[in-house]
């Protein structure tokens, strides 16, 4: 115990969500996939697995409707298409997110307008959203980043007062709650991802939920080329794609769904242990969770204050590499609006549509307008996290962080 220097400690391979070591895929999935294959029906338009998945997910969340689709990106696209913005209308969102949460806005001809984030929670706030609302705002898209819910109480109050629908991006926040309510059921629409690295997975896949009859019908149609399955005189009613999930994915998802609650609960337990173990480190913050919220720990983030801990999250991340820990300083390397698709407006041919319709302020990405966003990226260190962590893994992480902290602070 007295010599814990990096060179002497036997490196541990943490379980990874990119392979079996950190996933819950097993015989339950294999049995259901086999049943799907034996049925000979692999399309969800005729099969039973995706239907069951949709019913069970809706029940789990207490939502009136759930629909499965091809990816989290497709889920976001369904939500935006259901809101049906006019070209040039605006959807307020965050610049610290997956690009799959933003490109669907552009495909629907709308403009993503970025609200700043709270540098301690990495989430948008009611105040930061309010600061960028305009008479063209058609929806607000709230991302519960890393599984830590945004302040939905205040955000819903603001949105209701202005009559603006809220889309919740819950790709990272399965079973996280605010005031006892599941994320995804607080706004008008909730969007989820089943991509390889999310809480539960089918490799690729997505889900949307809503209580609203009209939005539900639009989303179901959007997944199905807007073909009115079951209608007396079906037609292709509007512009839409084939975003269906297939029965093989549906079968896997159905088995994964049973594992979701234990997965989240285990992630919470191990996260709590790590938080406990890192309480007294100068310049190292543990997740900041609102009193009315529960975090679902898609990832566990450290807030590394570069003013106290020299080199900030990059120095910590580099140090952790000696321990075989692949953390991600800065999460995404830059705010989404610095990516070429947004910065250079690379869209349809050389048209720059829909940016050609944007108010200048809506596409003003000047750094001074996003102090919280830049600060968040300068502070955040994303630790890999999954449901296969044991207390030994948490101890190893805590030890490595404390050792690296001591090494830097001594200098
Ligand atoms: C993963 C993710 C998406 C996109 O989901 P895909 O299934 O990868 O298309 C969207 N938003 C957030 C916040 C995500 O983490």
Helices and strands, with pairings:
Layout: H1 27-39, H2 49-61, E1 65-69, H3 72-83, E2 90-94, H4 103-107, E3 111-115, H5 126-130, E4 137-143, H6 152-162, E5 166-169, E6 177-178, E7 181-182, E8 189-193, E9 206-210, H7 213-223, H8 247-277, E10 284-285, E11 293-294, E12 300-304, H9 312-321, E13 328-329, H10 340-343, H11 371-379, E14 380-383, H12 391-410
Helix pairs in contact: 1-8, 2-8, 3-7, 8-12, 9-12
Bound molecules: pyridoxal-5'-phosphate.
The site of pyridoxal-5'-phosphate (PLP) has 15 residues, from helix 3.
Q: How would you characterize the overall build of this protein?
A:
- The strands form 3 sheets. A 7-stranded mixed beta sheet has the order 1-9-8-5-4-2-3. It has a 4-stranded antiparallel beta sheet with strand order 10-12-14-13. A 3-stranded antiparallel beta sheet has the order 7-6-11, with no helix packed on it.
- The radius of gyration is 22 Å and the shape is globular.
- The chain contains 12 helices and 14 strands.
- It has helices at 27-39, 49-61, 72-83, 103-107, 126-130, 152-162, 213-223, 247-277, 312-321, 340-343, 371-379, 391-410; strands at residues 65-69, 90-94, 111-115, 137-143, 166-169, 177-178, 181-182, 189-193, 206-210, 284-285, 293-294, 300-304, 328-329, 380-383.
- By secondary structure, the chain is of the alpha/beta class.
- It has a domain at 27-256: 3-Layer(aba) Sandwich (Aspartate Aminotransferase, domain 2), CATH 3.40.640.10.
- Helix 2 packs parallel to helix 8, helix 3 (72-83) packs across helix 7 (213-223) and helix 9 (312-321) packs across helix 12.
- The mean pLDDT is 96.
- Bound molecules: pyridoxal-5'-phosphate (PLP).
- Residues 71-73, 76, 97-98, 100-101, 143, 169, 171-172, 193, 195, 206 line the site of pyridoxal-5'-phosphate.
